[in-house]
Amino acid sequence: MKTLNNIKAVNEALDIAMEKWNEVIVFGEDVGYEGGVFRATEGLQKKYGEERCFDAPISESLFIGAAIGMAMNKLKPVVELQFLELGMASLQNILGHMGRVRNRSRGKYPAPIVVRTPMGGGIRALELHSGAIEAVFAHTPGIKVIIPSTPYDTKGLLLAAIESNDPVIILEPTKLYRAFKQEVPEGYYTVPIGEAAYIFEGNDLTIVTYGSQTVDCQKAVEEYESKNPNVTIELIDLRTIKPWDKKMIIESVKKTGRLLVVHEAVKSFSVSSEIIATVNEEAFGYLKAPPMRCTGYDIVIPLESGETYHQPTKEKILSKINQLIEYEF
Amino acid sequence: MQFIGKYDPLKNEKIQILDNQGNIINNNIEFDISDETLIEAYKIMNLSRKQDEFQNIVQRQGRLLSFLSSSGQEACEVAYAMSMEKGVDWLSPGYRNNAAWLASGIPVRNIMLYWTGNEFGGQSPEGINVLPPNIIIGSQYSQAAGLAFGEKYLNKKGVVLTTTGDGGMSEGEVYESMNFAQLHNLPVIFICENNKWAISTPYSKSTKSLNIAVKAIASGTPSLIVDGNDFLACYAVIQECLKFCREGNGPVFIEFDTYRLGAHSSSDNPDVYRPKDEFEKAKLDDPLTRMKNYLVEKGIWSKKKQEALDSEQFEFLKTEFEWAEKNKDYPVSDVFDYIYDQKPDFLVEQLAEAKTFYPDNENKFGGDK
Ligand SMILES: Cc1ncc(C[n+]2csc(CCOP(=O)(O)OP(=O)(O)O)c2C)c(N)n1
């Protein structure tokens, strides 16, 4: 066992993957010599050489296009977009090609690429450094989308993504990069893509969340339960956004009868829309209250002074928990 | 090297061997091509032209969805595609590359299958490294750069060829790709088939640059301008460029100066925007006429041979199209099967639902492999 934070977990997963597979190529802006602006790729160029880990020119569209070409030629590119929303130019290739080439070539040219990028707010950043646009990717056929929250999951999911035969996007909550440490097994292991995880088990309410909100939700649940000892809350970390773990969530809602989905991405047309719609389709008869959500508002993400207006906070989550538990039809 | 570094795009120099009558006008260029290869190339050029004509007819009958014709561009397309080594080199094409697909060994029936709406047609047969038609302009360049990175990294000896139009040269990805290929010294031939039109937008509204080839210079990529309707010039240049790339000299850029004789696509009418006199003048440069005159002059082609070829190719196209038409339908599972490596549960459920609406169609085709 080793104690790692999230960024070190990324670094260790990449190191193990590059050691294990000669086909793994890591590139992006500043990832080579410096090891990336967050140091996710620190030391890799030194260890594996400039051909396998290199600084790319600032051309995000090319990154993904070239990665598709590499993957079609049997390499395993792991591309870093320096910041999610500064990589918008890559969307053309992510949405238009990465998710489609397997189908377009009827299976002849799969494009198993891993795209990793920091995401999300609460980091007092400049404009376009705090976005959470996971729904854009989840909306696109052919792509898998992961948002890990713990070092254990970050390492295991990144290795699973590199192993996967499909293109995977890993959105890494920037706020959690160095927020805490966790014991992580040494060496190679994977966390299966598509499986959620219980943070707490409970009987009266299901909260589904992911990314940096796992921390806020945890605090809210602990506070609520300490004041209301007869209520227990099931807190689930989704971990994979697409395909999401429908089975676990439906089972949980059938048990608790109440659902709250929490994420910082804007409310409309979001991951919570998808989960709540599915629960309504498949577990409507079990509901003791209408499913609710606590999300970012449909606004351009404010700069630091207004940052908390947008984000779900412990207080906002607690208020939703109250509404759900006390709801009467 | 007789071209790279010697012809200067900044001086607007163009490489040409045949004039538009098919006479040799440049005796200084050395190249080696057998009569058999010349005849083979001409037959493919002719087949592609006939295929365009044929497909126009069946498209108007409502039997073909749409297609984008190569008419006018056959010389350069056949020259570069037939020069590729099968199973070794790659082609990362756009959507207007019919003649190149044929010359690279894709069966005509697969191409027709694609344009009738079956994606198996876009899948190149075993041993042919040709990507399916790329509709988003520009991205074929970056995919080519990535493929070439793979060739170099894996110590393979393939060269990657990629192509776009004069319109496509305005996409940022084009420069991004040449820059990347140059930085990594990758074996890729970037091609622009400058056919003077991007749908209804003329060349003059796409760029103010002296010519297309100069656009490569900023990335450090050597570039050449070639008369794209002159098969001999195209062939000679492509041989040198392939050698240049195989020897590890990095990427190279070629502008083929040509002209789109047909419509942009089968749903476009060029008479609306294309000046009539420009078109009439362009027809005098038809690559097929030029090549035919040259072969006749050489004594290896004749009017009689041409007539026989035309009717043989017409019959062939007819049979192949009828085959494609018969095989175009596929079962509903086909549109679910290739999205992911393994179908996630949500797709398994959606497929099960879809199947209740679409009874099984056993007519499943896997392309001509
Ligand atoms: C990125 C992108 N934008 C727009 C289009 C729509 N479109 C299809 S063909 C075309 C013109 C392309 O002209 P050119 O690159 O000169 O190639 P040509 O068709 O003449 O061979 C356009 C704008 C597209 N396919 N891709």
Automatic annotation (TrEMBL), chain A:
<dbReference type="InterPro" id="IPR009014">
    <property type="entry name" value="Transketo_C/PFOR_II"/>
</dbReference>
<dbReference type="Pfam" id="PF02780">
    <property type="entry name" value="Transketolase_C"/>
</dbReference>
<dbReference type="Pfam" id="PF02779">
    <property type="entry name" value="Transket_pyr"/>
</dbReference>
<dbReference type="InterPro" id="IPR029061">
    <property type="entry name" value="THDP-binding"/>
</dbReference>
<dbReference type="InterPro" id="IPR005475">
    <property type="entry name" value="Transketolase-like_Pyr-bd"/>
</dbReference>
<keyword id="KW-0560">Oxidoreductase</keyword>
<feature type="domain" description="Transketolase-like pyrimidine-binding">
    <location>
        <begin position="4"/>
        <end position="179"/>
    </location>
</feature>
<keyword id="KW-0786">Thiamine pyrophosphate</keyword>
<protein>
    <submittedName>
        <fullName>Pyruvate dehydrogenase E1 component subunit beta</fullName>
    </submittedName>
</protein>
<keyword id="KW-0670">Pyruvate</keyword>
<dbReference type="InterPro" id="IPR033248">
    <property type="entry name" value="Transketolase_C"/>
</dbReference>
<dbReference type="GO" id="GO:0016491">
    <property type="term" value="F:oxidoreductase activity"/>
</dbReference>
TrEMBL record, chain B:
<comment type="function">
    <text>The pyruvate dehydrogenase complex catalyzes the overall conversion of pyruvate to acetyl-CoA and CO(2). It contains multiple copies of three enzymatic components: pyruvate dehydrogenase (E1), dihydrolipoamide acetyltransferase (E2) and lipoamide dehydrogenase (E3).</text>
</comment>
<dbReference type="InterPro" id="IPR029061">
    <property type="entry name" value="THDP-binding"/>
</dbReference>
<protein>
    <recommendedName>
        <fullName>Pyruvate dehydrogenase E1 component subunit alpha</fullName>
        <ecNumber>1.2.4.1</ecNumber>
    </recommendedName>
</protein>
<dbReference type="InterPro" id="IPR050771">
    <property type="entry name" value="Alpha-ketoacid_DH_E1_comp"/>
</dbReference>
<dbReference type="GO" id="GO:0009083">
    <property type="term" value="P:branched-chain amino acid catabolic process"/>
</dbReference>
<dbReference type="InterPro" id="IPR017596">
    <property type="entry name" value="PdhA/BkdA"/>
</dbReference>
<dbReference type="InterPro" id="IPR001017">
    <property type="entry name" value="DH_E1"/>
</dbReference>
<feature type="domain" description="Dehydrogenase E1 component">
    <location>
        <begin position="42"/>
        <end position="329"/>
    </location>
</feature>
<dbReference type="GO" id="GO:0004739">
    <property type="term" value="F:pyruvate dehydrogenase (acetyl-transferring) activity"/>
</dbReference>
<keyword id="KW-0670">Pyruvate</keyword>
<comment type="subunit">
    <text>Heterodimer of an alpha and a beta chain.</text>
</comment>
<dbReference type="Pfam" id="PF00676">
    <property type="entry name" value="E1_dh"/>
</dbReference>
<keyword id="KW-0786">Thiamine pyrophosphate</keyword>
<keyword id="KW-0560">Oxidoreductase</keyword>
